[in-house]
Amino acid sequence: MDKNNNKKSLDKSDYIDLRVVIAKLWQRKWLFVKVWTATFILSCIYILPQPREYVTSLTLAPEMGSQQTGGSLSSIASSFGFDLGSMQSEDAFYPELYPDVMSTNEFLTGLLYTDVKSIEGEIDTTYLCYLMKYQKKNPITFPFRWCRGMLSKMLEDDAATVTQPGARINPRRLSKNEDNIMALVRENVMCDVDTKTDIITITVKDQDPQICVTIADTACAQLQEFITQYRTKKATKDMEYYKQLMDSAKQEYDRSVKEYSRYCDAHQNIILQAYVSERDELENTMQTKLNTYNAMHTQYQAAKAKVQERTPAFTMLKSASVPIKPASPKRMIFVATMLFLAFFVTCGWIFRNDIKAQLLGTGDDTTYNNPTD
Description:
Number of domains: 3
Distance between the termini: 19 Å
Structural class: alpha+beta
Oligomer: single chain
Shape: elongated
Strand order of the largest sheet: 4-5-1-6
Number of helices: 15
Largest sheet: 4 strands, antiparallel
Strand content: 5-15%
């Protein structure tokens, strides 16, 4: 009998009577009104001055280094995220490495000196100058940014500025401010590669929609140039080598022609066999030089064709367009989230004593249990 009573008492304390909870919350409805009003006002004060940011993207399909083989096996592997085509390709620079390339200091430095112009035309400068001087900040956060800046100046050893007038950033040796600029560009310029299709997506975020498009196009052009240089590097070196040999053979041939012509002009109407033999020897030498030049010229033309063969073709699937609507911040979502959090924090504050008593197993827990059962 006692066991049943204890079980019944335990069952009563293991559930929450929502009617009692709702009734207690309704009694404190004016507290919710005050909290929601204050939360709404503070959220609007913070989020409304927050600078708007725009996002644009483009998609690019590069030509692979070799034909992908494998048939249905490659298709099945692609569905599981494995790219058999890149494994079979002779090209060691896989598309999955493109995001790593775009995040390097050398690549980002090229973007910083791109000429940009705002959509209103008020700003016409380099991307580096735009990031340093024309970035909008939320005035509400100025005290926090000022305190953080003062603390950074007190702690940092390198007090150098980003660059001196006319100087360029050294990607191998960055100051503190330059590293912050690079981190901002990495956050604004992103690259993603689909492992199944090798489609490259470049996404750019910025406060001005026109600058978004400019940086996206520049990043795409730089990536294409980098890929092209990598794919044609060996063939280009071979072409330059054969060009040097061809130029050298051409000079030797021209020198031999001049020497042969000069000898013939100086020994006209001479029938001595010694002079005839020497003339024939010079003619044979000239012909040998000509054959060498023709061979090197053929090799050079073949190397040029190899460079053209190795040059990849890029297909622009979706070009960057000027965004119309800002992508962030989502003001309504932010305010709604703050109101939602304020509701739960207020509920926790109202039931703080009951929650504490329930966790510790002491005190009256009639708030959660139905006293009429």
